[in-house]
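Supplementary Note 2. Why include the ligand at all?

Several targets in our set were suspected to adopt different conformations when bound, so apo predictions alone were not considered sufficient. For every target with a known small-molecule partner we therefore ran a joint prediction. The input for 5'-deoxyadenosine is given below.
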Amino acid sequence: MKYERTTIPPEEIARQLSICHKIFDRVTADGARPLAMVDTYGCQQNEADSEKLRGYLAEMGYGMTQDEFQADVIVVNTCAVREHAEMRVLGNVGALNHTKKAKPDQIIAVCGCMVQQEHMTEKIRRSYPIVDLVFGPHELWRFPELFKRVLDRHKRVFATEQNPGVVAEGIPRRRDGSVKAWLSIMYGCNNFCTYCVVPYVRGRERSRLPEEVVAEARELVASGYKDITLLGQNVNSYGRDLGLDVDFADLIRMINDIPGDFLIRFMTSHPKDATEKLFRTMAECKKCAHHIHLPVQAGSNRILKAMNRSYTREKYLGEIASARRWMPDLVLTTDIIVGFPGETDEDFAETLSLCEEVRYDAMFTFIYSRRVGTPAASMPDPYTREDKQKHFDALTELANRISAEKHRAYIGTKQRVLVDGETGRDEYNLSARTNGGRLVHLKGDPSLVGQFITVEIIDGNTWALYGKEAENHG
Ligand code: 5AD
Ligand code: SF4
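The joint prediction is reproduced in token form.
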């Protein structure tokens, strides 16, 4: 499925920035310091998009706040992957009635995947008159222009046309942290898993040019970031649309070659095209974390086929074996959907047995959520919510037990960790991550934040490890 990618010309982004500066002059005219709030739902890609929204808002002169009563502008960046996230968004947007009553000039924008679905835009148009601006993921690059239209005309603006997707470079960013950074390497998805709405709302796969990605990674390293997560819906197919001779493994190597002490992480990988070359590259590149998030979704071949996942249980297990041969210390995490239409007790038993066999370090488990317009939405779904909940509970119990066992096996070992933040608690005031991304709580001087140190693991449970600083830093 080839299509022409739409690359937004640099002049267009420059035009958006000049609009930002006009808005700046206007909203700060009487010495005011207006405030904006960006509320983010969903995945890391959305977190990364919100950093761009904040970047634009900062250019427009807005300071940031977490208090919706203080905010002059509220942007809600939404998720469409499951109904639960959509319900939360709608509930929280509805509650903004109160803030807008208290502050009638407040501007409320709703953007992201949820509003790229026509039925949701219509719902907002009809039932949420407090919302002034609605725009989909493909329009984020021209947020300043859309926002100015609201300011100028005091009329509602909707920008959610269908679009196979754009790539825009040069949008300013206000990053959330100073230790860990998101780096989008590609956007969209071509896989059309039958349960998933993402390809419909985020468009087709399109990769950023390797030189753009590497330049951003260099900037991050130069600014002191120590943990860089490469983001894409399916990073393993990076580069395919570019027609260059650079695949995802090559990209990792290029980033690994940047001088400095930092870690490279990535998500998400699709098992249909995880290659031995990728595992070898991970093993050989010193800065690449030994962690793969490899969503299996289900353990039964019948269900995998109905999901259009393009691999079998056997192929998946073969990949895990190969990855572990290259990296015996590999940390493995996964996503699993319980209660896909028609999933029987027997199918589910195969998910349980697969999880017993793989022994994931952590599992993210979801009950199937029907998404309008996806093929699975019209498949027969005879099982009740209670049936599904029973399976879900059994899987959670298994996941928790295995995570606890795996975490307990760390006790007494020394681990090199990156201290990534303060917790605000007394006893364990710092949080850190192992190379494989496991959470470690520890006590220590706040000046350790942003440093790699060696800790001894003294305890572990389902959720985390507990450590104390070992004598040698390293
Ligand atoms: N219902 C439940 N879970 C879903 N996911 C994606 N779509 C759905 C859905 N319709 C899960 C998958 C995916 C993760 C990000 O969300 O497990 O890997
Ligand atoms: Fe959705 Fe499948 Fe694409 Fe992941 S790979 S975003 S689950 S369609």
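Residues 3 and 164 are 8 Å apart (CA to CA). Residues 81-82, 195-196, 295, 297, 335, 337, 366, 368-369, 371 surround 5'-deoxyadenosine (ligand 1) (CB under 6 Å). Comparable summaries for the other entries are listed in the accompanying table.
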